[in-house]
Write a structure and sequence with these properties.
Blueprint: H1 7-44, E1 48-56, E2 59-66, E3 72-80, E4 85-87, E5 92-94, E6 98-105, E7 111-118, E8 125-129, E9 133-134
Parallel strand pairs: 1-9
Antiparallel strand pairs: 1-2, 2-6, 3-4, 3-5, 3-7, 7-8
Length: 136
């Protein structure tokens, strides 16, 4: 005669396993939603602007201001008249409520525009066209 788990015990075990899995899913969902809400709140107040630029002896200087309440790291892209785009070899970081000048060394003949884009908040970006860069 074979013995098995009684139907009552089997139902209780299934309910227990279901509750454990539901608890894990709810915890994950709450943490995920909290992180997303925090990022959205920070990024909703983030704003950065390229205030100006100058070019002299192979050095391009950009004045960037972070108006937001969060530190931002930017990728810098150079767009040329032949529609090619080059990314600066290193990113720039700007603390909240701060302004700074960043220098890039290279050949910027036929430069069309310079663009900055935030890594933390992809919607935070700005561009500066070549005719606003003194010395180009």
């Amino acid at each position: 005669m074979k013995k098995g788990v009684s139907p009552l015990i089997a139902v209780i075990m299934l309910i227990a396993v279901t509750m454990i899995v539901a608890g894990i899913v709810v915890t994950f969902a709450e943490q995920f939603a909290s992180r997303q809400r925090t990022n959205i709140e920070l990024c909703s107040e983030a704003k950065a602007v390229i205030q100006g630029g100058s070019y002299n002896a192979g050095t391009l200087n950009l004045i960037v201001q972070n108006y937001g309440k969060v530190d931002l790291t930017f990728s810098v892209f150079f767009t040329y008249q032949n529609d090619s785009v080059a990314k600066a070899p290193s990113d720039i970081t700007l603390t909240a409520q701060n302004i700074n000048t960043f220098s890039f060394t290279g050949i910027y003949d036929n430069l069309q525009e310079v663009t900055i884009q935030s890594a933390e908040c992809p919607g935070v970006q700005d561009l500066l066209q070549y005719f606003y860069i003194k010395g180009l």
